[in-house]
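To: structure desk
From: M.T.
Subject: fold request, one chain
Message: Could you run this one when you get a chance? Sequence is below, nothing fancy, just the single chain.
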Amino acid sequence: MSETVEEHGAKCTRMLGVQALAYVVFIVVALVFSAMRGPMDGVSSASVAVVAVVVLAVFHVCWPFRAGMADRIIGAVAGVLSLVCVSTSLGSMVVPANDAIMSNELARNTYPMLRWAAAVAGLLVLLTVVAFGRQMAREERSHLIRALSHCVTGGAASISLGGWVFLPYVVAAGRHAGATAGTTKFVALIVVMVVVALVLAYASVFWCRELDAADNAREPWVGVALLPVMLFGLVVFAAALLIQIVGW
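Reply: Done. Structure tokens follow.
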């Protein structure tokens, strides 16, 4: 049975509410733990990583795409590996620290972003190969392009989620900007981030309208709500990298 205009409007409103709640939880957790332990304390990043794990789990439970359990597992594993690489020393195995990096201030400050960026590149390549192989292994290959794109999109969003772990870097920059002449630059950065979040929210309304989840999907509109939040992890990463390069 097709939805009425009122039912669709109510669903989109709930979807945007869940999306806004996810943003608020990330920000509040980062601010609270940064105030308690300092923005660059490991506990601050770990607390954000815990929220990211919860978001990842909810997204894959409320999977909004038409893809099988194997495709969901592929995306979930990719997301977990991304979070592990950004929040633990495993990322150093991707890009090992050396004297050239540690002796250069800019390279040293951007090293956490560099190693995660390298991990993301590798995971995206691996995701594409595994997702394609998974589709080729299917006996029934109907809707091949749709299934492949849904698997890759869910996996890419899961990988992007790890960028939220760099939120304490943005919080630290805000504190530093308040005591220096960098307030204007920081405000401009936050404005750009908010605009991107609003654009993603606007896009998610159309995604919700065109939602074509599996018949047995659990509240797929929640998955749609979290999709922009997960992709926004790349924006947080870019902001943290810019802050380190500009040097506020």
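Reply (cont.): The first helix runs from residue 5 to 37. Let me know if you need anything else for the meeting.
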